[in-house]
Amino acid sequence: MRWSQAFIPTLRDDPADAEAASHRLLVRGGFARQLMAGIYSLLPLGTRVHDKIEQIIREEMTKIGGQEFSLPALLPREILEKSGRWGVDVMFKLEDRHGASACLGFTHEEIFAWIARELRSYKELPQVWFQFQTKFRDEERPKSGLMRVREFMMKDSYSLDVTPEGLDKAFQQHFEAYRRIFERLGLDVLAVEASSGAMGGNESIEFMIETPAGEDWIVSCAACGYAANVEKATSLLESADDEAGPAAPEKFATPDVRTIEELAAFDGGADADRQIKTLVYMTDDAPTLLLLRGDHALVEQKLIDGTAAESLRPAGADEIRETLGASAGSLGAVGVEGVRVIADPALQGRTNMVTGANQDGFHLRGVSLERDIQVTEWMDLREVSEGEACPMCEAALAVRKTAEVGHIFKLGTKYSEALGADVQVEDGKSAPIIMGSYGIGVGRAMAGIVESWNDENGIIWPVSVAPYEVVVTIVNPKDVESAEAGLRIYESLIGDGIDAILDDRKERPGVKFKDAELIGIPYRLTVGPRGLADGKVELFRRRGAEKRDIDVHKAADIVLNAILEERR
Question: In the chain, what are the domain boundaries?
Answer without folding.
Answer: 18-72+106-233+399-451, 250-378, 468-567
